[in-house]
Design brief:
Strand content: under 5%
Shape: globular
Radius of gyration: 14 Å
Largest sheet: none
Helix content: 40-55%
Protein backbone atom coordinates (compact mmCIF):
# COMPACT_ATOMS: atom_id res chain seq x y z
CA UNK A 1 0.00 0.00 0.00
CA UNK A 2 3.00 2.25 0.32
CA UNK A 3 2.70 5.17 -2.07
CA UNK A 4 -0.97 4.50 -2.84
CA UNK A 5 -3.91 6.75 -1.92
CA UNK A 6 -5.07 4.09 0.58
CA UNK A 7 -1.62 3.99 2.16
CA UNK A 8 -1.53 7.77 2.48
CA UNK A 9 -5.03 7.86 3.98
CA UNK A 10 -4.26 5.11 6.50
CA UNK A 11 -1.10 6.94 7.59
CA UNK A 12 -3.12 10.14 8.00
CA UNK A 13 -5.72 8.37 10.15
CA UNK A 14 -3.26 6.31 12.21
CA UNK A 15 -0.51 8.89 12.48
CA UNK A 16 2.01 6.20 11.57
CA UNK A 17 2.60 3.41 9.08
CA UNK A 18 0.53 0.22 9.05
CA UNK A 19 3.71 -1.69 9.90
CA UNK A 20 4.13 0.27 13.12
CA UNK A 21 0.41 0.44 13.96
CA UNK A 22 -0.08 -3.30 13.46
CA UNK A 23 1.92 -4.19 16.59
CA UNK A 24 0.18 -1.73 18.94
CA UNK A 25 -2.34 -4.29 20.19
CA UNK A 26 0.48 -6.78 20.77
CA UNK A 27 2.34 -4.15 22.80
CA UNK A 28 -0.78 -3.63 24.92
CA UNK A 29 -0.28 -7.20 26.21
CA UNK A 30 2.59 -5.80 28.26
CA UNK A 31 0.13 -3.85 30.42
CA UNK A 32 -0.60 -5.63 33.70
CA UNK A 33 -4.36 -6.23 33.81
CA UNK A 34 -4.58 -5.83 37.59
CA UNK A 35 -2.33 -2.82 38.18
CA UNK A 36 -2.79 -1.27 34.71
CA UNK A 37 0.89 -0.49 34.32
CA UNK A 38 3.14 -1.08 31.34
CA UNK A 39 5.93 -3.19 32.72
CA UNK A 40 8.16 -4.48 29.94
CA UNK A 41 9.77 -1.35 28.53
CA UNK A 42 12.66 -2.29 26.27
CA UNK A 43 11.75 -5.99 26.10
CA UNK A 44 10.19 -5.90 22.62
CA UNK A 45 12.01 -3.80 20.00
CA UNK A 46 8.86 -3.56 17.87
CA UNK A 47 7.12 -1.75 20.76
CA UNK A 48 9.78 0.98 21.00
CA UNK A 49 7.63 3.53 19.07
CA UNK A 50 5.01 3.20 21.83
CA UNK A 51 7.34 3.28 24.82
CA UNK A 52 6.94 6.95 25.58
CA UNK A 53 4.87 8.53 28.34
CA UNK A 54 1.89 9.49 26.16
CA UNK A 55 1.61 6.14 24.36
CA UNK A 56 2.06 4.14 27.56
CA UNK A 57 -0.77 6.12 29.17
CA UNK A 58 -2.98 5.34 26.16
CA UNK A 59 -2.18 1.62 26.37
CA UNK A 60 -2.78 1.52 30.13
CA UNK A 61 -6.09 3.34 29.70
CA UNK A 62 -7.12 0.94 26.93
CA UNK A 63 -6.58 -2.06 29.22
CA UNK A 64 -8.34 -0.32 32.12
CA UNK A 65 -11.42 0.29 29.94
CA UNK A 66 -11.47 -3.11 28.22
CA UNK A 67 -10.11 -5.74 30.60
CA UNK A 68 -13.54 -7.05 31.65
CA UNK A 69 -15.68 -6.29 28.63
CA UNK A 70 -15.43 -9.41 26.48
CA UNK A 71 -17.47 -12.61 26.82
CA UNK A 72 -15.57 -15.20 28.79
CA UNK A 73 -16.39 -18.82 27.97
CA UNK A 74 -15.04 -21.46 30.34
CA UNK A 75 -11.29 -22.05 30.01
CA UNK A 76 -10.87 -18.95 27.82
CA UNK A 77 -7.95 -16.58 27.83
CA UNK A 78 -8.55 -13.38 29.75
CA UNK A 79 -10.06 -10.46 27.83
CA UNK A 80 -6.62 -8.92 27.95
CA UNK A 81 -5.24 -11.82 25.93
CA UNK A 82 -8.18 -11.96 23.51
CA UNK A 83 -8.25 -8.36 22.32
CA UNK A 84 -4.58 -8.04 21.53
CA UNK A 85 -4.73 -9.83 18.19
CA UNK A 86 -4.44 -7.75 15.04
CA UNK A 87 -6.30 -9.50 12.26
CA UNK A 88 -7.55 -6.85 9.87
CA UNK A 89 -8.71 -7.50 6.32
CA UNK A 90 -7.56 -4.83 3.89
Amino acid sequence: MQGTPAGKESRKILGTTLRTASVWADCVKSVDEEEFTYGEKGKRPECAPYENEESIEVMEDFVRRNVGTCPMPANAESCHRQYHYTDVAI
